[in-house]
Amino acid sequence: MEESIQPPMIIRRGRWEMAHYQDLLDIPMYNIPTIRALPRIFSREDTITALAKMPAYNPKNRSARAEDRLHMIQADMLEWFEPLPIHIDLEQRLSRVIRGSLPYRNPFKPGYYGEANSKIDELETLIRMRTPTVEQRTTALGFAMIGMSGMGKTTTLERIFATYPQVILHREYERHPFPFQQLVWVHMDCPPDGSLRALCLNFITTVDDILGTTYRKTHVRRMTTADMLMPVMAMIVSNHNLGVLVVEEVQNANAATSGGSEALLNALVHLVNTIGVPIIYGGTFASWPLLTRQFRQIRRGSGQGDFIWERMDRNTEDWANLIESMWQFQYTRHNTPITSELMDVLFDECQGITDFAIKVFMLAQWRAITTGRERITSALIRSVAHDSLRSSRHVLDALRGNVTLEDLTKLGDVYPPDMSLFNTEKPVNASVPTESTIASTTGSDHAEQTLATPGRSKPKRSHGNDSLSNDSTVVPDEVPVATAERVNTGTDSDSSPAEPTLRQLAQECEKAGISLHTGLQAQDLGFASL
After folding, report:
1. Other CB atoms within 10 A of residue 44 CB
2. pLDDT band, residue 61 (cuts 50/70/90)
3. I need a surface site. Which of 51, 311, 314, 370 has the fewest CB within 10 A?
């Protein structure tokens, strides 16, 4: 009986195209149908042109009715997109990721499906035996994209993926029949409960929705476990030569039950190792400890180098270019030229978070129009920010440095949660672990799970016109498992007096010659230097 599955909250769909092959490329290994059917590799100028979105703006609209202008502002701010260097960097990384592994997974090559079946068998064995991931050479060059909410990570990914077809239909290649349905990208979120089973179900449901396939109906039953779904997921990746899998909101894995987050990441690492599909992990700083807990996951997340998306810096051209581009979309009766003072005030109120900057600019115009002032001023920006960003006030205060260590631990999305764990020989206070405590805690994070896998049947696989169908075989209930003893981490010493502020802790660290273990710069913490 098929399980009733609710589809993911968001299924991101792209366009379909018939395959049109480029001329032979200068990179010999790229001369295969699944790469030649992709758009040409963008130059920097191509990327700027493709990503930029500048709504048509007519200054005469500043004389329109107030009610109409309120809608015009919102429509323009929803469409407007100004490419920055970080967006160009991300596009180039995705371009390399999508094309980099395809030469080693060429469906036009004879024996492709037989080799894919062997890799799926290997994946099943690794999962069934709870085998720790072995470091091995892989052609999948994924990476982790970590940053604060509101910086435009998801929006940028969506705009970049819009430059690619999501599905390419092949019919013939070099006068040989080649009926193949290529899936270029899948962009999904980690499920709220962070479980591996939910992730697999969401992936299968997403692919069925995009392609119109029936993998869910064929392979999913009420009692189907995560271990049984992973080979199905691998089969789908192979059947459609998936170019890249993006899993955002990885911090949700922290909500998984004991050992669940480790199981999810281990399974995805197995998928990368065996099938070779690149995976991009996206999340807030709350996902930082999860992704860096084990060396193999660090290595998988650094195939294209670390991608830490920090908030913007007031003293950079990027901030000036962004605000100047946005500032032209004014619908107040009186046009207000951008000044250094207005830029400073806007930055102070949004702390370099682009989503806040756009909202404050839009809200300031709404208030100026509805109150009849019809002019943007510094006082108006501060008033709007104070009234409209109340729920985010604690976050903005933290970014300004006005926060205690106790408050900081509650802001995992803003700072890496381990930022207070300074590696000192003598703790600054009792709430800051010692070096030995950190070492023992890290050691415990490397322990593997020891749960046995219940008996199950292997799914039949369908690989197009070169399918290999396996008879249903039952895996014994008793299987060897990898074991590891956990390290006793101990406890901290007695409670200490009132905790110092972050600035005071930084000063103590400076005296001891210690650096903060974080991807943020000192300026992002609210003080000039450490």
Report:
1. 12
2. very high
3. 370
